[in-house]
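testing teh design pipeline on a random one, pls ignore if ur not involved
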């Protein structure tokens, strides 16, 4: 049975990770230059409070696997996330803010909790670090965590990130591909690069694979 899910996981990854975009221009910097660029990137990216992402996710928890479409709108501390596909071919909506979260399932039942992780795990069985993913989606570490271990690539972007999780197995995040968004698409006066493919692991049990299909901002979304 475990071998079956391993094969299924591999097939699902091949299907959702086959999309491609124009490659980012390859330029190499030395270590000190990369660090300086990273500091500038953090300042720029941390100003992004409102964003809209559409894409695909694969989540593995032990021998269970879910493949889903994701539509995520973040407005400061408030968010609305739609997950579609694995839940009886229905759609799950998560909406909330710093004060609490609600989940609405495909039967229009509504549930409440303090965190999106609690709701998602209890009512769907999916274990996913949504509160942290909010920052990782932008290629940033959690600014409130002091135990981030960061590695940069030659362009001053996050290449990998490790986060100790209150004594549990650490979250290991790899940023495998970035997309270059021109200044007409983002709320900045210059081009910015955002993650397009992210692989997240916690030990050997929990795996999350994210592929961004589209980034939207106030000046490009309706």
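output:
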């Amino acid at each position: 049975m475990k071998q079956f899910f391993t094969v299924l996981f591999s097939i699902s990854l091949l299907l959702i990770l086959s999309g491609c975009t124009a490659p980012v221009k390859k330029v190499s910097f030395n270590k000190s230059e990369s660090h300086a660029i990273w500091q500038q990137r953090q300042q720029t990216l941390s100003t992004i409070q409102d964003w809209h992402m559409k894409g695909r996710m694969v989540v593995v928890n032990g021998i269970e696997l879910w493949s889903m479409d994701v539509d995520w709108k973040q407005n400061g501390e408030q968010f609305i996330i739609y997950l579609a596909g694995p839940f009886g071919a229905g759609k799950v909506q998560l909406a909330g803010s710093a004060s609490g979260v609600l989940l609405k399932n495909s039967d229009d039942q509504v549930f409440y909790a303090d965190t999106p992780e609690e709701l998602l795990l209890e009512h769907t069985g999916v274990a996913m670090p949504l509160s942290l993913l909010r920052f990782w989606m932008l290629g940033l570490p959690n600014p409130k965590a002091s135990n981030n271990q960061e590695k940069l690539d030659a362009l001053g972007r996050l290449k990998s990130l490790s986060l100790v999780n209150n004594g549990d197995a650490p979250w290991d995040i790899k940023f495998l591909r970035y997309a270059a968004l021109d200044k007409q698409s983002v709320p900045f006066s210059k081009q910015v690069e955002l993650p397009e493919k992210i692989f997240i692991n916690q030990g050997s049990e929990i795996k999350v694979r994210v592929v961004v299909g589209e980034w939207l901002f106030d000046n490009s979304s309706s």
